[in-house]
Fold each of these.
Amino acid sequence: MQMSTPIPSTSVASREEWGRNVCALTYDELDVQSITRSVGDDGAGATVVFVGTTRNNFKGKVVTRLEYQAYSKLAMKTVAEIVRNAYDDSVKRATNSTSTSHLISCAVHHRLGTVPVGEASIVIAVSSPHRREAFVACEQILEGVKQKAQIWKREYYQGEDEEKAEWKANYP
C-alpha cells in the first residue's frame, strides 16, 4: 500500500524586514495601531495609513467573508520589490525637486485565510517628513500589490453554495 504525501501549502505566513521596512503575510488579525506605530519616527511629519476591509456586499450580493491565498515566497519577494521601488521613486522625486523629502519607513501587512466582514485584509503604513510623499507612496504600494502580488481572493455570498464562491481579480 502506497502512502500519499500531502502537498505542502504555498500559502504560508511569512515576513521580511530590512532597515525600517516590513512586509508580512499572516493568518492573524491585523493590528492597525501596532502597524502604524511600527513606521513612527520623530522625523516624520506625516504617517499615511490605508486599511482595506472586507465589505458586506458586491454587486447586490451579500458577502459573508473573503478568503485569501498566496504563493507566499513569490508574493513576499514581489511586495518587497514594490516597497523598495516606492522608496527609490521618493528619493528620485526629492532629488529632482527643491524638496529633500523622501520616505522614512513602510509597512505592508496582508491577511491570508478567512477574513470576515469588517476586518482588515491589508494595512499599508508609510511615514515621511511631509504628507505628499507619504500619500504618493501609499497609493503606489497599494496599486502595486493589487496588480502584481501573487495573492488571490475568493468571495463567499450569503445563500449561495460555498463551492460556487468566486475567485476575484484584485485589480479591475
Amino acid sequence: MATKPLVEWETGLLDCFEEVGTCCYGFWCCPCLACTVSGRFGENSCLPLCDICSPAILAAFGIPLFAPPAGLSLRAAMRNRYGIKGSLCKDIAVACCCSWCSWCQMHRELKHRKVSPTVINVQNTTIFATQPAPVMMMQPQGFVTQQGFVNQQGFGTQQGAFMT
C-alpha cells in the first residue's frame, strides 16, 4: 500500500493577510468562523461552541481545561484527512496559544480545497421482479341483489335462497 507524501498547510498560521476576508471574519466573529469551518468540514456546525462553553462549565467544578477540545480535534482531523505535516503536540500548542489563528488557517485550507460537505445516502435494496400466479376468471353464477334475494341465470328471483 503506497502512502501519499505529507504536504504543508496551504498558508501559514500567521498568514491572515493572505486573505483579508477570513482574517476579518475571524477577528470580529471567531465563534461564527469556527462554526463555519466545522460545518464545511462535515462536522456539526455547533461543535466549536464546546470550546466556548466547556472551560467555563468545567472551571465551575474545579476542573481546569486548557486545550479547546473542538479546535484541537478538528485541526488534527483536518491534518489526517488531507495528509498535512504536523504532530499532535504542535496541534495542542497552536490550539492553546493561538486559537483564532488556527481557525483562520483551517478556514483558508478548506477554501483552498473548495470543500463543501457531501452527504451520501446508500441503501442496499434488492428488488425481485415477480408476477403473481395466473388466475382464471369465471362468470358468476348468481349474485345477491337485495338482502335475502339471489338472482341466478335462467331462474327467477327466489326469496330465502342464498348462494354458497
Amino acid sequence: MEATGSRYRGDIVRGRMEGRGSYALPTGTEYRGALRDGMFDGEGELLFPNGGTYRAVWHRGVPTQGKYTFADGLEYKDKKWHYCDGYDRRFYTEICSGLKPAGISQLTNLDPPRKIPVGCYDCGDGFYNPETRVIVDYKLRFLRNADDDEHEWIIRTCRKAWDETTEHKPKP
C-alpha cells in the first residue's frame, strides 16, 4: 500500500484488510466501512475530495447498490434524473436558493465560481492546462494526463479562464 501512496487504518486478519477500516487513496478519495479478504465488502462509503459521497453495499469490491450525493447535498438519481436537463437548466443552488436578478448570471453551481488559472479550463474535478495536457485537482495536485478524447471534450464543453474580458456587443 505504501508503494502506491495509499494508507489503511483498521482491522487485519491473516495479513489482509478485514472488518472495519479506512482506506485512503493517493487521490484524496477515502473508503470507510466494512472489508473482507482485502476488498470492500458490506456497507461502506467513498468520500471524495470535492465533498461528494458514495454510500453503497459492496460485494467483493463491487458496489451492488448505492447512492451518490454531491457536496451541496444534491442526490444523484439514475432514473428520472431531471437536474439541469433541457427543460430546467438551473443549478442546484438556484433551485434551493432562487434565481439571481436579471442580468446577473450564475456560471456554476458554486457562487461565486472558482477562479480558474489563466489559460486553463475547469473540468469538474480540477483544472486542465491544454498546453501540458495535465489535470490537477482544485488544490493544484496532479490528478492525471488527458488523452485525446478527454482533451477534445474539455476544450469543447468546459468553462475557460479567459485572459481578456468578453462583453456582449449589440448588432449595429
Amino acid sequence: MDSTVVNGQSKMMIKPTGMAAVWPVIACGVGLFSDGYLNGVIGSVNTLLALIYPNEYAGSTYSKRISSIVFVGTVVGQLLFGYFSDKIGRKFGILSATIIVIVFSALSAGSYGAGGSVRGMFAALTVYRFFLGIGIGAEYPAGSVAASEATNDCKKGWRHALFIAVTNCVIDAGFVVAAFVPLVLVWIFGENHIRAIWRIALGLGVVPPLAIFWVRLKLKEPERFQTQSMRNVRIPYLLVLRRYWFRLIAISIVWFLYDFTAYSFGIFSSPILERIIPNPTLVETFGWNTVINLFYIPGAFAGAFASDWLGPKTCLVVGVTLQAIIGFFMSGFYSKLVENVAGFAVIYGIFLTFGEFGPGDNIGLIASKSFPTAVRGQCYGIAAAIGKIGAFAGSYAFTDIINAFGGSSTDRGNSGPFFVGSAFAVVIALITLLCLPKLSQECIEEEDIAFRAYLVDHGWDVSKMGLLKESSIATEAGEHMSTSAEMTGSADEKKRQMQPVYTAERAL
C-alpha cells in the first residue's frame, strides 16, 4: 500500500495484488462470451430454419434480418450505455447488460407467432434479437471499459494480454462453442428432429450471463472511474472533441473495416462450406464449421501475448498484413483449394487466426486505452458502434459481394469475399501505421494525466472530478496552478502534480 498526504493527514491507498487484482478484470470482461456465442450460433440457426421452412425462410428477407438485426440493437446499446457508463457508472451498465441478455436469449428460444404463424415467429425472433443486441452492446462500453481500467492495478508486462484474454479471447471462445453446440445437438437429436435444435441452441445463451451474474453483483466501480469520473459535472464535449476527434475517427474506421469482414465470415461459414461440400449432412456442415472456428483461438491467444511484447499497434499491423497475404492467396487459388475440403478449412482457419492476432485482439484494446477515463465509455462506445455498423453492413453485403463477382455457383463469385476482405486488411494496416497511437503499460494513467493538464490549460476546473469523498476530488493541479505551463520541476514532479489525491476507499 502507498501513503498519500491529504489535508495534512496521511491516508493509505490500498492496492490489490495477485488474483485480487485479476478477478475484477475477469468479472468485467467475460460477459462478451455472449457476443461471440449469440452472433456465431445464428449462422447454424439460419441453416436449420432454411431446412425446416424451405418456402418461407430460405432465400427470404427473414434470413438476412434475423442474422443482421442483432447488430442494430448492439449499436443502440453501445451508444446508449456508453453514455450511461460515464454518467451513471460502469457497474450499472454491466448489470443491465447481463439482465437484458438473459431475458431476450430466453425469449428468442421461445419465439412464437400469433396463431402459430410461421412468419409471425420469424418477426418475433427478429424483435427479440434486436433487444438482445442492446444487451450485447452494453457489454462493450461497460464491461470492456471497466476491464481495461481494472488492468491498471495488475502487474506491468501483462496488462494488455490480460485485457485481451477476458475480452476478445472470450468472444472467440463464444464463436467456437456456438459452432460446436449445434453439432452436439444434432448428434443427440438426429437430423430428423431439428426443430428442437435451433431453439435449444438459442436458449443456451442464457447460461453464461446467469453464471456470472452473482459475481458481477459484488463488483464496485473501478478505481480510475472513482478518481477521474465526470459523473457529477458537465462534460466539456467541445474540448474533448478538439483533442480526440482524429484518434476517434481513425480507430472507428479500422474497427468498421475489420468487423465488416470478420463477422460476416463467422456468420456465413456454414453456407460457405455448403458450397464446397456436395450434399453435406448437418453433421458435416457443423463439424467443419467447428474446425474452422477453432482457428480463432490460437490467433487470439498468440496476439494477446504479442500485444505486450510488440505493442498493440505493431501487433495489429503484423496480423492484418499476414491476413491480407493469405486472403489474396485464397482468392486467386480458390478453385484449387476447394478440391480438398480439409485443406480449404485449414487455410480458411489461418486466414481467420491472423485476423484475430491483429485487429481482432488489438482494436478493442487500443480503443479502450486511448481515451481518458472521464469519457472512455462514450468514446469506446462510439468506436465499437461504428465497428458493429461494419458488421451489419458486411452481413448484408456478403451475398451481394458474391453475386457481384459472379454468383455462388461460380468459383470467382465465392472467392470475392476473400479478395474484398484482404483489400480491407491492407487499408487497415495503412491507417494503423499512420494514425493510431502507441500504447505503453501505463497508458491509462498517462492519458488521464495528459487530459487533466489539457483541461487546466483551457481554464476548466478539474477539482470536481471523481466520486470519492473528501479530498478524492482535490488535485494539486487544481489547487496550485491555473495552467499546466506554470508547473515547474522535473518531468516526474509534473506527473505527480497532475495525479488525483484520494483516500483508502477502494474498488475491487
